[in-house]
Design a protein that fits this description.
With 111 residues, the protein is of the alpha+beta class. The chain has one domain: Dimeric alpha+beta barrel (Alpha-Beta Plaits). The protein is 28% helix and 33% strand. The chain is built from 2 helices and 6 strands. Strand 3 and strand 4 form a beta hairpin. The longest helix has 16 residues. Belongs to the YciI family. This is YCII-related domain-containing protein.
């Protein structure tokens, strides 16, 4: 099963050097244990653009979809045999990045 761990941050800023080191160590553990799929950081909401092309003409609006202090600042896509394992990995990820995280199962993963 595949899961997404979303890192929830606020507008306070980037990870500290210690947090970055802990994140790198967690990434190495995920790889060594066979849970790694991909991970990445995401720029702040001020860099966002919302695109709605459901109509005849696309609507492009600068800024985030939701105007809120909290935002998704990064993610891990992981592979785990069950939800309990994924929850344990999400807990370790939260400790590593010193942020709240949200764990959700993926409905599918195209490769």
């Amino acid at each position: 099963m595949h899961f997404m761990i979303s890192v929830i941050d606020d507008t306070s800023g980037s990870a500290s050097a210690d947090e970055t080191e802990a994140i790198d160590a967690f990434n190495d553990e995920l790889k060594a244990d066979g849970h790694w799929v991909v991970a990445g950081g995401i720029s702040s909401p001020e860099d966002a653009v919302v695109v709605d092309a459901r109509g005849e003409e696309p609507i492009v609006r600068p800024g985030p979809l939701h105007d809120t202090e909290d935002y998704v600042a990064g993610f891990w896509l992981i592979e785990a045999s069950d939800r309990e394992t994924a929850l344990e990995l999400a807990t370790r990820g939260s400790r590593a990045c010193n942020r709240r995280v949200e764990l959700r199962p993926l409905l599918g993963l195209a490769r």
